[in-house]
Write a structure and sequence with these properties.
- It is a single chain.
- This protein is an alpha+beta fold and 132 residues long.
- A 4-stranded antiparallel sheet has the order 1-2-3-4, covered by helices on one side.
- 27% of the residues are buried.
């Protein structure tokens, strides 16, 4: 059951004590890194509602159409770096590993976050190609 599973974000905590607090209980992530981890977890659970709600309105797509895409098998998340440049801006560098139809991929991204209205939002990111 989801209540006793380890959190997909790689924290080695129970889901309910980790990202489940944000996805299910509406708690606000205290840092950009926690928000990024919870967004990764939301992708693993196809929680498009949470992904859109935590995406800054200036760059948010209308829909991610996760239900219409081939389902990724998410394999793991590694956070490489979290930097908060000032009170309202932060970047998180991470590598997410996943499979689609048995083929393995890695997404290496430096994501930008902004703190506004009392919470962090994902803005956008730069995907790094060919780097591990």
């Amino acid at each position: 059951a989801i209540k006793t599973m380890l959190c997909p974000c790689g924290s080695n905590q129970q889901y309910t004590d980790c990202c489940g607090r944000y996805l299910n209980n509406g708690e606000v992530a205290a840092t950009a890194e926690l928000l990024m981890r919870s967004r990764y977890t939301a992708y693993t659970l196809d929680r498009e509602d949470y992904l859109l709600a935590t995406w800054h309105h200036s760059t948010r797509p209308v829909s991610l159409e996760l239900a219409n895409k081939p389902r990724n098998q998410w394999l793991g998340l590694a956070v490489k770096r979290h930097e908060q440049s000032d009170l309202d801006h932060a970047t998180v560098e991470f590598v997410a590993r996943y499979k689609i139809n048995g083929r393995a991929y890695r997404l290496h991204e430096i994501s930008r976050f902004v703190y506004t209205e009392g919470r962090w939002f994902y803005v956008d990111g730069d995907i790094l190609q060919g780097l591990s």
